[in-house]
Design goal:
It is built from 5 helices and no strands. It has helices spanning about 1-25, 30-45, 50-65, 75-85, 85-95. Helix 2 packs antiparallel against helix 3 (about 50-65). The chain starts with a helix and ends in a 5-residue tail after the last helix.
Length: about 100
């Protein structure tokens, strides 16, 4: 479980870096975003299941398609949300029975 968690982090960092590479190359970057945006959205929905993954996929599609927005690390933010800030994780810790 922990190994998968950090494997997703590595993939998230890689996908964010890949999305930013298209931002660096002037002229070519806009064309590459046409291909990368739907692919990134699809990858997001595969990495994170359920409604949260679908919402993140839509956000990723919009963020990658808009010019100049490639600097937002959506995959890494989604990983942080899922593995660090998600409310369900906190509730699991609080529900520990001490008797």
């Amino acid at each position: 479980m922990v190994k998968d968690k950090y494997k997703k982090l590595a993939l998230s960092l890689f996908f964010d870096a890949l999305g930013m590479v298209t931002f660096i190359i002037p002229g070519v970057g806009e064309f590459a975003d046409i291909v990368w945006a739907p692919l990134a959205a699809w990858l997001m929905t595969r990495m994170y299941k359920g409604n949260v993954g679908k919402a993140a996929g839509v956000f990723t599609l919009i963020e990658e398609a808009l010019p100049g927005m490639d600097v937002i690390p959506t995959f890494t933010i989604m990983w942080l949300y899922t593995h660090v800030f998600k409310k369900e994780k906190v509730e699991e810790i609080i529900d520990v029975d001490i008797s």
